[in-house]
Write a structure and sequence with these properties.
The chain has 399 residues and is of the alpha/beta class. It has twelve helices and 14 strands. The chain is 32% helix and 18% strand. Strands 6, 7, 8, 9, 10, 11, 12, 13 and 14 form a nine-stranded parallel β-sheet that branches. A three-stranded antiparallel β-sheet has the order 1-2-3. Strands 4-5 form a two-stranded antiparallel sheet. Helix 9 crosses helix 10 and helix 11 packs across helix 12. The longest helix has 22 residues. The chain is elongated.
């Protein structure tokens, strides 16, 4: 032992010294590191097994579009076939063997039993476009743009009419006239009156185009009010360019067109005064003929018991309406409310009734209050076009 302590390290070892064991731990650790690195490389080169499969719409985009006569063969795959209620087309959705969804459209047979596409322009105007005129219903003239019937047969009274329910219950139309003469009164009428009330604009009013747009955006059907000769003319003068029995037919038509050219988007013409003119058949015929030819209705305000407007309109097959009652002969709210109740009794007896009033504050307040109460009693307030006698109306049509 003593001599071994002084021997150089690792030399002169005795024969009985044990051999060093191989470093198995280091070998195992190296192997583990190599295995981990290899697995990482393998995972990076392959798709992640946890990645989600692509949605069905991706397969739809990449799949080739089927030809007209090339239907997918998926006899054992679920499918759904339905009919589009708007277009009437058959819609088939088939899930193919690879999970893709193929949608196919095919027309149905037109045997008269399928759905019918309705032109929205034929049953009133979209409220979003109510202040914009239909260009096909206008013609240029020296007096401005005048309403006309379109080549397709569409009339202004169809395009600009306010739609109604179509129910055959008690219906009442109320027309408030004289709009445009007073700026504050016109604004108050447009803002406060329910949209079911028809508004008539005086041709001699101011800012008519602006007021027309506001009224139409508010949902109102509108008329243009034209001055006609009263019995006590010229002591009672309706204003410039009044239609007179003493004028030629051509001159009266010119004055009518001047009034018509003031605004657009109206369904008809309403008289302002005019007892003498309305009672003269010879004077009324050319005027009524022109109004009807342009696809407009004529509303007689009922102020003259001698009016021949209904007889002339019937002979010419022109759309016509006749007011049953003047509502504000007495300018007090209570009196106007009583007149409205009387109008309701007429409507319940006859099925329909038309009342007219002027755009006074008392009239506007009474009509606004009564209209809300009438709706609760089952009365439908409609625009005047819904109650016009229209010989050329489409059967079964609801404006």
């Amino acid at each position: 032992m003593g001599t071994d302590l002084h021997a150089p390290l690792g030399q002169n070892r005795g024969p009985d010294r044990k051999r060093r064991r191989p470093p198995f731990g280091r070998i195992l650790a190296s192997f583990c590191l190599i295995a981990i690195a290899s697995f990482s490389l393998y995972s990076a080169l392959l798709r992640d097994p946890l990645q989600k499969t692509q949605p069905v719409e991706t397969a739809e985009k990449t799949a080739p579009a089927p030809q007209a006569n090339d239907k997918p063969t998926a006899t054992d795959q679920p499918s759904l076939t339905q009919v589009d209620p708007q277009s009437g087309a058959n819609t088939s959705r088939i899930v193919t063997s690879d999970g893709s969804v193929v949608t196919m459209f095919s027309p149905t047979a037109r045997d008269g039993s399928g759905p019918v596409l309705i032109n929205a322009n034929q049953i009133g105007q979209d409220p979003r476009m109510a202040a914009t005129p239909n260009e096909s219903l206008l013609e240029d003239s020296p007096f401005g743009r005048l309403p006309v019937t379109a080549p397709s047969g569409l009339r202004p009274m169809d395009q600009y009419a306010r739609p109604w329910s179509g129910a055959r219950g008690t219906r009442i139309a109320i027309v408030v006239s004289g709009l445009g003469l007073s700026q504050t009164g016109t604004q108050r009428a447009i803002e406060k009156l329910p949209e079911e009330i028809t508004l008539a604009f005086a041709a001699s009013g101011n800012s008519l185009q602006r007021w027309m747009q506001e009224a139409r955006r508010g949902g109102h059907e509108i008329l243009i009010q034209v001055p006609f000769e009263p019995f006590d003319y010229p002591s009672n003068n309706p204003g410039p360019e009044t239609l007179l029995t003493s004028l030629s037919a051509a001159k009266n038509i010119d004055n009518l067109h001047r009034a018509m050219g003031k605004i657009t988007n109206y369904t008809g013409v309403m008289n302002y005064l005019g007892g003498r003119f309305l009672s003269n058949t010879d004077a009324m015929q050319p005027v009524m003929r022109d109004i009807g030819k342009r696809g407009l209705l004529f509303l007689d305000d009922g102020s003259s018991a001698q009016s021949k407007s209904g007889t002339v309109a019937k002979a010419l097959e022109a759309p016509h309406a006749f007011a049953d009652m003047q509502l504000d002969g007495e300018l007090q709210q209570d009196a106007i409310l009583k007149k409205l109740d009387e109008l309701e009794r007429v409507a319940r007896r006859n099925g329909t009734a038309i009342g007219v009033a002027s755009a006074f504050d008392e009239s506007i307040d009474a009509i606004s209050k009564w209209s809300q109460e009438a709706a609760m009693r089952g009365i439908e307030i409609v625009a005047v076009s819904a109650l016009a006698d229209d010989p050329k109306a489409i059967p079964g049509k609801v404006r």
